[in-house]
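Dear colleagues,

For the upcoming journal club I promised to circulate an example of a predicted protein-ligand complex. I picked one with nicotinamide-adenine-dinucleotide because it came up in last month's discussion. The inputs are reproduced below in full, followed by the predicted structure.
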Amino acid sequence: MADLDGEKRNLIDGQLVDASNGATFDNINPATEEVIGVCADGTKEDMDTAIAAARRAFDETSWSTDPAFRQKCLSQLCEALSEAKERLRPIVTAEAGAPALLTNGVQCDSYIDCMPYWANLAGSYEYEKPMSDIQFMGQPQRRLLRREATGVVGAITPWNFPLALNLTKLGPALAAGNTVVLKPAPDTPWCATHIGRLVHEKTDIPAGVVNVVASADHAVGAILSSDPRVDLVTFTGSTATGRRVMEAASATIKKVFLELGGKSANIILDDAPFEQVLPFGATVCTHAGQGCALQTRMLLPRARYEEGLEILAAAFEKLPYGDPTDPGKLMGPLVSKKQQERVLYYIEKGIEEGARVVSGGGVPAHLSKGFFVEPTLLADVDPDSTVAQEEIFGPVLCVIPYEDEEDAVRIANNSIYGLSGGVTSASEERALSVARRIRTGTLSVNGGQWYDVDTPFGGYRQSGIGRESGVLGFEEYLETKVIGLPGKQ
Ligand code: NAD
């Protein structure tokens, strides 16, 4: 596609480079199945060079100790990203299949607009402050609490929100004074390599501080979890891969920061205004359901179950999906053939285990190209069944009936995940009291939204370790040092 400004080179040690062996891999548009271009297929040697560069930049430059310089460089990056917005936007849609509509918000603009937050925090954060004085063995003592950059950060990202999640890693990690090796998902390399190009061409960020190593080979990224020169791995992706990252990181007792999967429950209490709120249940298909925090289980009260299903079915039939470049569409394709097959497998599995297909359930007949799956409404889902327990990561809503409030809370918490969720009731007080009992990192009550750059986002249980964004997210990238000094007599 001539109008896409894809960057095929990796950024390693301050240079935009091809792979060490010259290899490339195809970047495929999931809506058209066409190759939109190629990307350097980073090798293990490239990863080694990138880690060495990041190590040297951390140990031998003033990047980690000069917050004012970091603020200046990150402000340059903010400006470069703002200027590049209209070039990045079509890349997100072309390589991730993300609806163009979403690039006005969470797939592009929101995260570019958030970047000044990190630049400012780099300069304004209080890295050193006194603690209260103490007595030790009868002698007065003073203490200083210092926060310092952790070191070399390995950042591994998924394909579902490629630009947003790369920036979510780079912003705080760099602002806190770390050096970074970013390894994007092979399905969406250009969102990362384009950022690498901006860093190289438009900022004074020293060589080695930011490295971008795209590769078709997951094993290249896996080096970040085991290499002793890397101090922290920040990973966003599936819980299965998160386990592998954590296991590999254990040999060097590396810090791990994990943002993993979800299976969030949307509890509709029996007094909720169904006509008003249930149509929003279909928005779980936004971006073909490829969002970790989407509320993919809907819990409906048994007494109003059929009434609820009817409203949901109508909303599913109306959900606009198809060509993601069409600004009227909420849903595009799955990112790859593999993901399409995975979603279809889960729908079959759901049916096998007793679920009823109320809407969708297959590949849309009217779309001859692209990795699409119809918006799918599964009813009568058993809360213990595979589709209620495992992350489908597709345009599928699982509807589960419940008996009473206790039952709803029990079903919502019956999960290895704990990322997000929702509660709706005519009474905010009642909804809030249920929300307080749900074991998840974020929750929406009566449709209230929690997302912003200063919202600490992350999960309970196997949805992850740590919180991304906000001051808490920034502090994930800092070490803690306490210095004792003799007290004044
Ligand atoms: P994935 O786990 O397959 O891949 C994520 C990244 O890990 C990719 O860059 C991949 O190349 C890399 N990778 C694969 N194997 C690896 C290994 N052994 N060691 C190191 N890196 C390895 O996930 P995905 O399919 O790309 O993304 C979808 C998943 O991401 C979903 O489960 C979703 O819920 C999750 N996700 C979570 C959040 C969150 O913040 N909690 C946000 C977005 C996506």
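Two points we might discuss: The radius of gyration is 24 Å. The mean pLDDT is 98.

See you all on Thursday,
B. R.
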